[in-house]
Amino acid sequence: MAAQNTPMRGHTRRPSTSAHAGKRAPVQPPKLNGYSYVRALGEGTTAAVFLYEQHGTERQVAIKVSRGRLDPRAGARFRTEANFMAKLSTHPYILSIYETGVTDDGRSFIVFEYATRGNMKDLLDHGTYGVDETLDIGINLASALYTAHRAGIVHRDIKTSNVLISDQGLPALADFGIATNIYDHRATGYSLPWAPPEVLRSQGGGDEKSDMYSLAATLYAMLAGKSPYEYGYHPHTQQELASAIMNRPLPALNRADVPEEVEHVLARALSKNREDRYYSVLEFAYALQEAQQHAFGHATPVTVEGVERFSRALTRQQAAATAAATGALGAGMPGAAGASAAVNGASGAQMRRGIVIASSIVAAFALIALVVVLVVLPNIDRGQSSSVAVVNPNATASQSTNADTGDYAGSAVVPGPEALSGSIRGDSAVFSWSNPDPQTGDKYSWNLLDGANSSEAATITTDTHVSVPASPGAQTCIQVSIIRADRSMSQAVPVCATR
Fold first, then answer.
1. In this structure, which CATH number among 2.120.10.30, 2.60.40.10, 3.40.30.10, 3.40.50.1240 belongs to the domain 418-498?
2. What is the mean pLDDT of residues 432-455?
3. Which residues are documented as binding site?
4. Is residue 40 within 8 Å of residue 56, measured between CB atoms?
């Protein structure tokens, strides 16, 4: 990390949200077949993380273990969420999962990739990040988060301690709601500094735009050294901090090297009114990308399968640069031909002078073209990721009801199902939904979300209703997505049937 050398100003530890956090007995590392215990890494309210070495490969891994024996439904949720994260961990900026299981004494565990450089929270204790690197990391994390959102997963706990740094210095988003505070040595019951106003006002448990807010707060902390309202108002209590988040204006970043456009992008993602934020995390990534291009002359590509790697504005710039290079080469050739014709009837000295002039013209145009092709175009496509997105040829630009959404390229936004309902009828749970924008070839993907009955694979249907065996508990839940003929997919929408 190319962190600035200046230390964090006025850094204080966050107060613990649990009065009994220090009295809780430490979690004991379990004995696991195929692994040797090395040391403890961190502990949270529901789980602890330990460093182990895998037999045979001698690879070090981080293993998260639940604090105690989980009841069957909680254990099923633990494993189901691990399965979700395992599906997402193919993304280069999401922490990889290798294995899940249950210890001999009944505790659930998950085997993770070990991020040797720790978490961003600890790194910020030694200094803030540069602006360009912050934008680069922000675009990469937004790519990971948007990938999760498309899979119907909301993180709900994005913060500096949940951004891990790999051997290669790349960020990896961790802890998708499985337990809190992976690698975090200061256990807390919830993440107040990063929570958006609507969550603090108990207006729901958080959604995609809440995740966007928390990601923007994390990027702000990379530049400021701490979360926005801790940085700006130095609250002494949690109540003061919560009040500032809900009621006081966003503090300005007191860094002369942060361009105004970067502050504007972060401020919009941190809007107190969720409707004033960007339409999606993808659009937030594109806005960061454009700010990076304007400030530094290059842009980190978005790494999301099926969407454009650059915003529409940057794509237009790239097309214009290509056209300029082509035009320059084309303009140079007639000039050379004309000059050649002119020297055919000239004297020897005039002929030599004409050849030199004509050659200079062609060389000048060729040099301009080479500069555009070899310098301008590669810089617009520079980034840490070497992944190439699979572009959907049928995709159109994302649309938003907000007037100020920017001009972005990407896959068409597929609306989620609406009017979802569920009811228990005897031993069955019956669900129905509607398609707000039906198109030829539309299908629907659904899967169970209810404890031990959670299904790993989704079921595809052309119907707008489904009946499943009811869970023995109080409710049975599924999530539903719309799938277009071109394989683009909406975000998953949950619905529950309650007894």
1. 2.60.40.10
2. 77
3. 64
4. no
Class of domain 1-305: mainly alpha
- 484 assigned to active site: no
Contact (CB, 8 A) for 478 and 446: yes
423: exposed, middle or buried (Cβ count in 10 Å: 0-12, 13-18, 19+): middle
Tell me, rounded to whole angstroms, the distance of Cα 305 from its chain centroid.
13
Q: Is the separation of the CB atoms in 371 and 289 below 8 Å?
A: no
User: What is the model's pLDDT at position 31?
Assistant: 94
| Alpha carbon distance 54, 34 (integer Å) | 6
Q: What is the pLDDT of residues 271-318, one digit of tens each?
A: 999 999 999 999 999 999 999 999 999 999 999 999 999 999 898 888
Residues forming the annotated binding site for ATP? 64
Task: Provide the pLDDT for residue 175.
Answer: 80
- pTM of the entire structure? 0.61
DSSP 316: H
Q: For residue 300, is it left (φ>0), alpha (ψ between -120 and 50) or beta?
A: beta
pLDDT of residue 204: 67
* Distance between CA atoms of residues 136 and 118, nearest Å: 19
Longest dimension (CA), the chain: 104
Q: What is the CA radius of gyration of the chain?
A: 27
* CA nearest neighbour of 312 among 389, 407, 396, 391: 407
DSSP letter for 283, please: H
Mean pLDDT of 56-64: 92
Q: Summarize pLDDT for 73-102 with one digit per residue, the tens.
A: 666 666 766 777 777 888 999 998 898 888
3-class SS at 127?
coil
User: Rounded distance, CA 128 to CA 130, Å?
Assistant: 7
Q: Domain limits of the chain?
A: 1-305, 312-380, 418-498
E strands within 373-464?
Answer: 418-425, 428-434, 443-448, 459-461
CA-closest candidate to residue 162, choices 105, 229, 214: 214
pLDDT > 50? residue 39: yes
Q: Considering 79, 107, 156, 277, which one is annotated as catalytic?
A: 156
Place of tokens 């951004």: 163
Q: Is 80 exceeded by the pLDDT of residue 182?
A: no
C-alpha to C-alpha distances, 262 to 47, 128, 216, 245, 400, nearest whole angstrom: 37, 16, 11, 20, 21
Pick from 140, 156, 298: which is nearest to 219 by CA?
A: 140
